[in-house]
Amino acid sequence: MKINTILVTGAAGFIGSFLCQRLLAEGKTVVGIDNLNDYYDPGLKQARLAQVKGHPQFTFRQIDLADRPGMAALFSEHRFDAVVNLAAQAGVRYSLLNPNAYVDANLVGFVNVLEGCRHNGVQHLVFASSSSVYGANTKFPFSVHDNVDHPVSLYAATKKSNELLAHTYSHLYGLPVTGLRFFTVYGPWGRPDMAYFLFTKAILAGEPIKVFNHGKMRRDFTYIDDIVEGVCRVLHKRPEADPAFRSDQPDPATSTCPYRIYNIGNNQPEELLYFIETLEELLGKKAIREYLPMQDGDVPATYADIDDLTRDVGFRPSTPLAEGLEKFVTWYRSYYRI
Question: Which of 13, 132, 157, 333 has the fewest CB atoms within 10 Å, measured from its CB?
């Protein structure tokens, strides 16, 4: 499978912008789309885009995934060898406030992507799922071979729905699809609504940080470079039907059609309190901690089993949390001139 022209949705987003830079460095032709909404600072999105906009092999189009005619025209205008769908309405807590935004972007928009791939000969669709699909699961580490039918947030439910929709298109139309469950992605240029970003801003301003579940949280923090490396490796490995698939004991991670699910996580969950202490050390300032109960839709721990990813593409994320946070803090001070 030769991949030259790639559509990246969510190109102004955190992961999308890093992926575009990586693909362009590899000599690929990249078309990036984003609706540049104001869920968080559009200026940050524009600043990310500015890093690739002048590249001769990069084209940007401002399109909303839910715009069916616009998406159909995009796929007709370009012949994409592969598509990486990273555009989504993100955030567990925001889904409690604005559920319709998740339906429009994550369900309606994703079907428009699937239809574009189906009708225009796309060789491989790679799409972002999330560790949130594990929901109420308590068996650790989280395995792609485990059942994930009990989401605890609307955001998680839409990501699980993406996996179901992708499987259906793979089964009906032979579309090769791979879903990637990302685990707590962090790093420079990240999303301002993420905990590490909010904590850094508050600590430097001398304001209290909200520590949910009284700090008894564990997260499989995964550095942005590791996420992008995993995406690129998977992109070039088109899935095939699993010859060992048994319909009487169905495996959620594989199928009789070209469909695969992988976790991409650091495979090493860290305590939230250690995370805060590391930030304090890097910032040279103690946090004012406000301990609160668990929030609706949240889970106490995440932990990725990445054996399948390692076996199939030979990659294991490995960036230590302290190293990744140091790079984030350096970027944060530079970007915000602190």
Answer: 333
Place of tokens 């990302």: 182
High-pLDDT (> 90) share of the chain, %: 90
Residue that has been written with the tokens 């839910």 in this structure? 66
- How large a percentage of the chain has pLDDT more than 70? 100
In the three-class reduction of DSSP (H, G, I as helix; E, B as strand; rest coil), residue 95 is classed as helix
Contact 25, 51 (CB under 8 A): no
Residue 9's pLDDT is what? 98
Question: Which residues contact residue 327 at a Cβ distance below 8 angstroms, ignoring those fewer than 6 apart?
Answer: 187, 188, 223
Tokens 């984030």: give the residue: 328
Of 94, 155, 259, 332, which residue is the catalytic one?
155
pTM: 0.96
Residue corresponding to tokens 């399948």: 308
Q: With contact defined as beta carbons under 8 Å apart, do 195 and 234 qualify?
A: no
pLDDT digits (tens, 9 = 90+) for 65-115: 999 999 999 999 999 999 999 999 998 888 888 999 999 999 999 999 999
C-alpha distances (whole Å) from 327 to each of 55, 175, 321, 324, 337 are: 25, 38, 10, 5, 15
- Annotated catalytic, 274? no
CA–CA distance, 85 with 156 (Å, rounded to integer): 16
pLDDT in tens, 50-62: 999 999 999 999 9
Dihedral of the CA atoms 204, 206, 212, 214 (nearest 10)?
A: 120
Only one residue has tokens 């792609």, namely 144
Q: Which helix (H) or strand (E) segment is 254 a member of?
A: none
Rounded Cα distance, 118 and 327, in Å: 40
Question: Between the CA of residue 297 and those of 88, 100, 191, 254, 324, what are the distances in Å?
Answer: 18, 17, 19, 27, 27
Q: Which candidate, 177, 181, 108, places its Cα nearest to that of 143?
A: 181
CA-CA distance, 107 to 122, in Å (whole number)? 20
